[in-house]
Amino acid sequence: MAFIAHISDLHVGALAFKHDLLNKAIQEINDMCPDVTIVTGDITENGYYMEFEKAAQYLDEFESPLLVIPGNHDARHVGEQGFGELIEKRCGALNLKSKGLVVIGLDSSEPDLDYGKVGRAQQEFMEEELKHASKDKLYKIIALHHHIIPVPKTGRERNVLSDAGDILQSIVDGEANLVLSGHKHMPHVWILGNTTFATAGTASSLKLRGKTVPSYNTININEDTIEIILRGIEGKKITLAKYDNTCR
Ligand SMILES: [Fe+2]
Ligand SMILES: [Fe+2]
Question: How far apart are CA 198 and CA 188, in angstroms?
Fold first, then answer.
């Protein structure tokens, strides 16, 4: 049915950023020919314009349709300017009707702050998009940088969305199928009711927690099953979740 690449937290411009890792990830993803690649923020380290210029060059190398949303690092130092000029054309909602899915991107970043917030305007936009997608019987994916549900092994919780309860309610009411996030650099999957919440690690930096490795995720949506696989840049491959596809 559909094959999705989920990559996050590139951190272009960081001391810990490794361009070899990003080049390898882009090459691997292009070789797998996904129907869409979703980039869930922190594409830069400091939100500097020059970092966005470099990040845009990397993003241009993806051959699949692309949806990119900003993270808290991209909102530093008036980063919304660089993101707006160089990246935003890749933001918003991406309707892939021929593949039976829609991806709704949300900007959860706040200028110069690490915590996340979606806000009422975007919440209403998401609710409308979910409604339309339900009518069209599409598989509904929400993409945002900050996690809505706490992620294990990430220490004391400080960065969950400040309006997580409201957004979670809209996600459940709108019967979203999959919610993709980054931010904590800790790959994880929660399956709650009919919605799966998957976070990706950092794909191209060494800003790693414990023994995690640079990685990204792929999601294979088949007629009967859905499989989320972590792909370590150094060849590590782990099935994070495999479950029945109830959205048919
Ligand atoms: Fe990050
Ligand atoms: Fe982040």
Answer: 6
